[in-house]
Amino acid sequence: MLNIISTASMIGVGRVYQDLMIDNEKLVARLICLMMDAIGVDHKEAKDYLRKSKINFKIVIIMILLQCSYDKAKENVLQAGVFVQKALMKGEKR
Predict the structure, then answer these.
(1) How many whole angstroms separate alpha carbon 52 and alpha carbon 71?
(2) What angle do CA 19, 49, 86 make, to 5 degrees?
(3) Is 53 within 8 Å of 60 (Cβ atoms)?
(4) Mean model confidence pLDDT for the chain
(5) Element counts in the chain: helices (H) and strands (E)
């Protein structure tokens, strides 16, 4: 019953598109925690990088670990397909 009420509330405030939750701060907070754990950045850095990466977790990993721009990280990810490890190998430190 609580899920129905919560879902109805989210629809009412415009946070649902079709059947998907959008504009969800909890998901962003989880990504920040993942970045802090997996990559070792602090909260402020994680938040800044996440914004710069347009909230794309694969791109943010490449940006941080290779210290490269969004465009370079995106290029590496596109060339590597779905494999972050492969994208990291394609990159160069800048």
Answers:
(1) 10
(2) 85
(3) yes
(4) 84
(5) 6, 2
Of the pLDDT bands very low, low, confident and very high (cuts 50, 70, 90), residue 94 is very low
The shares of helix, strand and coil residues in the chain, as percent rounded to the nearest 5, are 70, 5, 30
| pTM confidence score | 0.67
**The token pair that represents 14 in the structure block:** 């415009």
Tokens coding 68:
């490269």
CA angle centred on 43, ends 52 and 69, rounded to 5°: 25
Backbone angles phi, psi at 75, to 5 degrees: -60, -45
How far apart, in whole angstroms, are the C-alpha atoms of residue 54 and residue 52? 5
Q: Is pLDDT at 75 greater than 60 in this prediction?
A: yes
The 8-class DSSP code of residue 42 comes to -
Residue 33: the pLDDT is 92
pLDDT of 89: 84
Query: Residue 34: CB partners within 8 Å, gap ≥ 6?
Result: 57
